[in-house]
Design goal:
It is found in: Membrane. This protein has a domain of 146 residues. By secondary structure, it is of the alpha+beta class. Helix content is 46%, strand content 10%. The strands form four sheets. It has a four-stranded antiparallel sheet with strand order 1-8-9-10, sandwiched between helices. The protein has a two-stranded antiparallel ribbon with strand order 2-3. A two-stranded antiparallel sheet has the order 4-5. 27% of the residues are buried.
């Protein structure tokens, strides 16, 4: 019993310690506000083209201005976008949503590497406290397993078990299975370079796709996209759809883990943030996108979209 109490208290101490660290650490936020990308020329050029001639070179297209345009910055070679080719914008933070961020109503900030809001912990999980959360979940799992085994073994020695202990063992076992599932998901997300919200969005999209697998013409209505610089025409950009199984930020398990420990405070300018966002894409994903472009599986940015072209 002394050993049981000692080990149990140690596990409780670790659990409570990392819960406290989760609350004071906070999920982090992006220090740099990133202005909109300068995309007007690409919209204008795309609107001039005839879809049937998209593989030709157009000498009449406007030249790309490499200078910042009205406080805007030049887009990276590839970025996440909506079906019209535009990046996500946070009106609360007045900044582009980069570094896989989402706006948190709890902290009123865009959280980089936004994973989820944990009601049980009472904190948003993101870039800064994700590691603490994993240790917290592991300590809870060890505590429940240790308690479950101890109660079963100790009661087995006495050859009897009180009805209250039976209920306790059943509830603890069920909770242990649930926490184990969460732990497996967290480890899987690390392995594949996903966050919880990215995995859930992909699975939700996958279920929607199965329900509508006979109506492929609606593919552009519920898929994700990237806006990519045309490989041969510098004055054009392309919208490339993602597939259900794409994991854009999978760089291998070791680099995926190192990404979580990268200090984003080193990103001092909007260009730094934008370039780092591009570097987060996995090499395999970049090759897959280029292959889709070669197979003409794309749309020209600015062509057949709801974006109004501007005069150049």
């Amino acid at each position: 019993m002394i050993a049981f109490i000692t080990v149990a208290n140690i596990l409780w101490f670790i659990t409570l310690l990392f819960w406290f660290l989760l609350l004071i650490r906070k999920p982090g936020h992006i220090l740099v506000k990133v202005p909109p990308y300068s995309l007007s020329r690409f919209v204008y050029n795309g609107s001039k083209l005839n879809f049937e001639h998209k593989n030709e070179t157009f000498s009449s297209l406007s030249m790309l201005d490499t200078q910042e345009d009205g406080g805007m910055i030049q887009p990276p070679p590839m970025f996440d976008c909506d079906r019209n080719g535009l990046p996500s914008w946070c009106s609360e933070c007045c900044s582009l949503k980069l570094l896989r961020s989402h706006h948190s109503s709890v902290t009123n900030q865009c959280i980089p590497w936004f994973d989820h809001f944990c009601t049980f912990v009472g904190s948003t999980i993101g870039k800064q406290n994700y590691g603490y959360f994993i240790i917290y979940v592991m300590s809870i799992e060890l505590l429940m397993i240790f308690t479950w085994i101890t109660v079963v073994v100790y009661s087995g020695i006495k050859h009897s078990m009180h009805s209250a202990l039976i209920v306790f063992v059943i509830i603890t076992g069920a909770l242990s299975i649930s926490v184990a599932q969460l732990e497996i998901n967290l480890i899987s997300d690390l392995f594949y370079g996903e966050t919880t919200i990215e995995r859930l969005d992909r699975l939700s999209w996958k279920r929607s796709f199965k329900k509508d697998d006979k109506n492929n013409e609606n593919f552009y209505d519920y898929s994700s996209y990237v806006n990519v610089q045309h490989p041969h025409e510098p004055n054009l950009r392309l919208i490339v759809p993602l597939t259900i199984n794409d994991k854009p930020y999978d760089n291998g398990v070791f680099k995926n883990i190192r990404m979580w420990f990268y200090n984003i405070n080193q990103l001092k300018t909007p260009i730094d943030v934008s370039n780092f966002q591009y570097d987060m894409y996995g090499d395999k994903f970049k090759r897959d996108i280029q292959k889709r472009i070669e197979e003409n599986n794309y749309r020209i940015f600015g062509y057949e979209s709801s974006i109004e072209p501007v005069s150049i």
